[in-house]
Amino acid sequence: MSLRHLLIALGDPLVELQVAPGGLEVDVRDVVIMDPDDPPDVSAGDLALVIGARGRAALPLVRAAGRARAAAVAVKESSPALEQAATDAGVALLEVRPEVRWGHLESLARSVLTTTTDDSEVLGDLFALAQTIATLTGGIVSIEDTASRVLAYSRSSDEVDELRRLSILGRQGPEPYLKMLREWGVYNLLRSGEEVVRIDERPELGIRRRIAVGIHAGAQPLGTIWVQEGDQPLTEQAERALLGAARVTAPHLIQQRNQPTSRFRENLLAALLTGRMDAATVAGQIGADPGKPAAVVVFALRGGEGDRSEHELRRAEMTGLISVHAAAYRRSALVSESGGRTYVLLPDLAPNAQLLNLTREIVTTARRHLHTSVQAAVGSTVSTLDDAQVSRQEAERVLDAMARDLDAEVATLADVRSQVLVSEILALLQDNPRIRDPRIDALDPELAKSLLAYLDALGDVRAAADKLHVHPNTLRYRLKRAKESGLDLDDPLVRLVAQLQLRMR
Question: Are 286 and 256 in contact (CB under 8 A)?
Answer without folding.
Answer: no
